[in-house]
Amino acid sequence: MRRIANLIAGKWTAPQDGKYFDDHNPATGEKIAEIPSSTAADIKTAVAGAQMAQPEWGALPVEERAVWLDSIASALEARSDEIAELESRDTGKPVALARAVDAARSALNFRFFAELVRELPDELYKMKDALNVVVRKPVGVAGLITPWNLPLYLLSWKVAPAILMGNCVVCKPSRLTPLTANLLAEVVTEAGLPPGVVNIVHGSGSKCGQALVEHPAVGAISFTGGTSTGRSVAAGAAPLFKKLSLELGGKNATIVCGDADLEKTIPGAARAAFMNQGQVCLCGSRLLVERSIWDEFVPRFVAYVKAMSIGDPASCDLGALVSQEHRKKVESYVVLAQEEGGTVLCGGERPTLEPPFDSGAFLEPAVIEGLAPDSRSATEEIFGPVVTLHPFENDDEALAIANNTEYGLAGSVWTRDLERGRRIAEGIDTGMVWVNCWLHRDLRVPFGGIKNSGVGREGGRYSLEFFSEPTNICLMEA
Ligand code: NAP
Question: I want to staple 220 with a disulfide (CB 3.0 to 4.6 A). Which of 26, 198, 216, 243 is the partner?
């Protein structure tokens, strides 16, 4: 059991009011750490530290900052086993997933942005009598607020482009999963990054997240989390005219056409529904299946899901949900789905497991059919191992069901006919659609949602643009 500290202006700092939260491993219930329950006072000190460091950091050539990103990437790569282990203990996710996804992507995020900036052409616009040169300046201090489902993966996705563009950052990771943010704090300290460039303050969203959003010296807020929290973040940031990036919830459709290759589609749709126990914003939690293959698809899909192993995160396909509280929320949707007329084809129960996992927050993956597409369980984000099945007769009906939510984050289409796949993809009102794959990521492409799934885009140059202010300089011969 360890007690962790905030990293403020390069110093390990206890919370000013001396209070701590307990951090638990949700797979066992074991207490694994105490983390600062920081307040607005700690945020104020961290923002001051970032402000002190920013002029010098922002004045470095971007190529020099890219070298710092490379060093951080190398240090994270060297600790990838530890990252996987910590991420699994903090979130309950399978270690193999944490190694392949969380640890790998966290290091890659730094490497990727460092390489991208080296390849970016200058932004120049020639006129007959003048030349426009677009210069990108740092915003200043950026506030980065992240959720618990992919803790270091999402934090590094923001820290890397933010500091690359010359900003100094104050990070507020989820209080449920602080350990890898603390590892990043160790990495930047050991690498010798100038003090104050990266500050990490642990605590609750209501106390220190809100304080960060409302701090007048923070010029940009990059937030990933739930839609209702996003609403309050937007309300806090708007009167101060901050730059704001919101990556919010989703209720994504997986559309399976009658001609899909089921050998590939069934594992693909199951992965989309249940990866990380269904706790990925992009998860395909509504599975729309063309009526012509319904009778074949449904039993095969259910058999596939029933065969997934659940339990010990060191060896199983599925681990625990992030907390007991979150499991109760997901279970309440399984009950609601039945009240709304749904039939549970498998899962939705707590599995019987041997100690030390017998009191962990596990839930068998649930497949539910028979729900109206506009029911609450089929339109609200559950963010857990629950997928609802819906038949459709034709593409128009598939699109009507897919688009019938407040969300607009992602989706996938499965068909042997790429032209049809592309046509359906274009009709889905989301920021991202995959055809015959899911979560196949090229870090250069725009990432983000429409409707209540967010505002703005991350990824590649979109992130670099968010974390900078363009100044156009129009040059004319004297
Ligand atoms: P959340 O409850 O909205 O929390 C996200 C972060 O915001 C946490 O660090 C939280 O602090 C903080 N926070 C809470 N209230 C705040 C406030 N008033 N002001 C500022 N910050 C505040 O979300 P979550 O439960 O951690 O994560 C799950 C949600 O994230 C799902 O809806 C999922 O779809 C979404 N998500 C979206 C994406 C995407 O890219 N679109 C990616 C991943 C997850 P605490 O420590 O107190 O919780």
Answer: 243
